[in-house]
Here is the input.
Amino acid sequence: MTITQLIYALQLKKDRNFKRAADHIGISQPALSIQVQKLEEEIGLKLFDRSSSPLSLTRDGELFLIRAQEVVNNAKALRNFVDELHDDYNGELTIGVIPTLAPFLIPLFSQSLQDNFPDLRLEFKEQITEEVVKNVRNGDLDVGLISTPIGVYGIQSIPLFYERFYVYTSRDERAGSHEIRVEDIRHDDLWLLDEGNCFRDQINNFCDLKSVRKDKKFIYHSNSIDALIRIVDTRGGMTILPELTTMSLSGEQEENLKIIKGKPKAREIGMIFRTNQDKGRYIQILEEHIKSNIPGHMLSGSNYEILDPEIAMD
Here is the structure.
């Protein structure tokens, strides 16, 4: 049994198709089939039911590949540990970032991080919360930048900063008070992000907006806050923005912001990684550069009502 065979079997588990898995790995389909068959023969277990379409795991295969993932992660950790013993910071960090954060946060710190550590390779992947958590846990991502806290086995989190929520209204509604009560937010005029987005779920929790789209005749599915701002600007209504988003608004658009009355509501943005992660130095560097490039008042959440994203996975 080799690490390579385990990696091949795990890729096949992910793709459920020999051709797709072989293409992802970069080998021929027969070569993949032979290696998986050799692995099954050596351990005396059938991992896959080849008669089903798409390919399915056997019960024993499911259990075996859970442990195989741990072995592959540990092997990767050992290789990365060797890199950690060097002082040149020439490794790599793969970072998942949620869409409501990526375009507003990454430009703030990425240039200074590259300037200080030019040999450190950074790869950012924009993904919804569920994908970030899943990919951090299975080792496809080293780090995730999401709304925390999080209750997921095997994952650790570090709070980074806190984003206050604001209401963004259309130009026609900017008149009057610069404050708005939660109960005065009109559900039929509110534009929200698509399902599966943690930021949307937080808004639903504090506004009780489960029927927002129920009677709408025009529904826009998006994971982009920029798109929601443009929709409000052109079609009217309102949306809810986290603080970093507001920093990219034009002077005229800033006039459309309203404060939510009462104790300020905010989301905690944190960094997540595997409990047995092996890139401690790189993660510390990332944390330091994010915090040093965020406005100082956002580093403490003591004055906010922090909304729980309620992230929990088996």
